[in-house]
Amino acid sequence: MSTIEVAPTVSLVDPLIGEEEIAAVERVMRTGQLAQGPEVAAFESEFADVTGITHAVAMNSGTAALHAGLAALGIGPGDDVLTSPFTFAAGATPILMQGARPRLADIDPRTFNLEPESALAAAGSRVRAAILVDLFGLPFASAGVDTLRARGIAVFEDAAQAIGASRAGERAGTLADAAAFSFYATKNVTTGEGGMFVTGDAKLAEAARRFRHHGQGAQYEYLTLGYNYRMTDLAAAIGRVQMTRLNEITRKRRANAAFYDAELASIPGLTPPFVPPGSMHVYHQYSILIDPEHTANGAGRDAVRAALTAAGIASGIYYPKPLHLHPLFAPLGYGPGDFPVAERVSRQILALPIHPRLERMQLERVVHALRAASGAKRVG
Ligand SMILES: Cc1ncc(COP(=O)(O)O)c(C=O)c1O
C-alpha cells in the first residue's frame, strides 16, 4: 500500500500570541470590567511611550481611528480628501462617511504608496486633507509634505500596517499631523479587532475621544455627533502584551524579508519590495511583483500563485482591484486607465508568507516553489 505524503502547509498569517495574552484576558475577565476602562487607559499611555507619540486614543478598529481623525480635522460635505487608489477600502470609506469626496492620485511604482508629491499634483482647491498610507509597512516619502501643509492640506498618516516602521529615524505614526493604526487579527500587533488614533495635537485628540464616545462632553451631554468606537478592556489587555513583543515581531519579519530579498535577486521577473535609503520597512506584507514578460517561462502572477497553492504554500493578493474600479466608488467618475500604475501593480502583485513563526525550511520551500513556478534555473 502506498502512502501519499502531504507536505505541511506554509500559512500566510500566524500571529504571535502566547500564554501572556491568554493570562491578560483572564485577569481582565476576573475583574468584571470588560468594556473601556483602566486597561484601555494603560494601553494608550504605553502605546504612546513606545511609539514616541504624544496623544493616543484607542478605538475598536483602524477604520474607526481613520473616521475619528477625519471628523476631528473637520472634514465634511464639500471637502475633498486625497487618498490612494491602491489600498484597503478603509483608506477611502471614512471620507465617504464624513460626506466628503475621495480624490485619487496614482501610486509610486516602487513604493506602492501615494507619495506626497503625486498627491500635491492632484490637489484641487477643495482638497482639505490627504490620507497618506504606509502600505505594507513602508512609510510614505517626506518630499512634498511641507508643500501640502503650506497649501492648508492636513496630512493624515494611515499607519494601519506600519507599527514599528520608521523613516530617517522618525517613527510611523509621527510622520503627519495625525495617524491611525490597526490591530486587526492579521496585523503585526493585534488585539483581534482594534485601532489607535494618534496625534501631537491636544485638540485633535480631544475631538477624537469625544467622537469615540457618542460625542459626549460630560456623561449624557451630547455635544457633537459621535459613535460607539470604544475599545474593550479585553482587547486593550491583549494589546499591552503584544506591544512588549513588537521588537521581536519586527526583527523576525525583517529577517524573513532579508532571506527572500537575497534569494529573489536570482529569479528573473520577480521584484522584491523596494526600500528607500533611510526607511525601515516592517513587512506587514512582503509583496513582490511578478512580470510575465520577464519570468523565464512567461508565467504571470496568477500562474505562480496557483503553483504555490499546489505546493501547499499560501499567498495573498493585496489588492486585486484598485479602489476606483469598484462599484462603491463608481460615482467618483474614475474609470479603467485612470491610474495605470495602480492597475498594473494590482495584476502583478503577490504577498508571500512573512509572519514571525515561519521557519527557515518553510522560507526555503517558498523560494524553491517560486523558482519552479517561474522556470528559473538554480544558480550557485
Ligand atoms: C491600509 C489599511 N488602512 C486601514 C485599515 C483598517 O483597519 P481595520 O481593519 O482595523 O478597521 C486597514 C486594515 O485592514 C489597512 O490595511
Could you please describe the fold and organization of this structure?
It is a single chain. This protein has 380 residues and is of the alpha/beta class. The protein has two domains: 19-244, Type I PLP-dependent aspartate aminotransferase-like (Major domain) (Aspartate Aminotransferase, domain 2), CATH 3.40.640.10; 246-373, Aspartate Aminotransferase, domain 1, CATH 3.90.1150. Helix content is 34%, strand content 14%. It has twelve helices and 13 strands. The protein has helices spanning 19-31, 38-51, 62-72, 93-97, 116-122, 145-150, 202-212, 233-244, 246-264, 301-310, 340-348, 360-373, and strands spanning 55-59, 80-83, 101-104, 127-133, 154-158, 166-167, 170-171, 178-182, 195-199, 270-271, 279-280, 286-290, 349-352. Strand 6 (166-167) and strand 7 form a beta hairpin. Helix 1 packs antiparallel against helix 8 (233-244) and helix 3 (62-72) crosses helix 7. The model has no long low-confidence stretch (mean pLDDT 96).
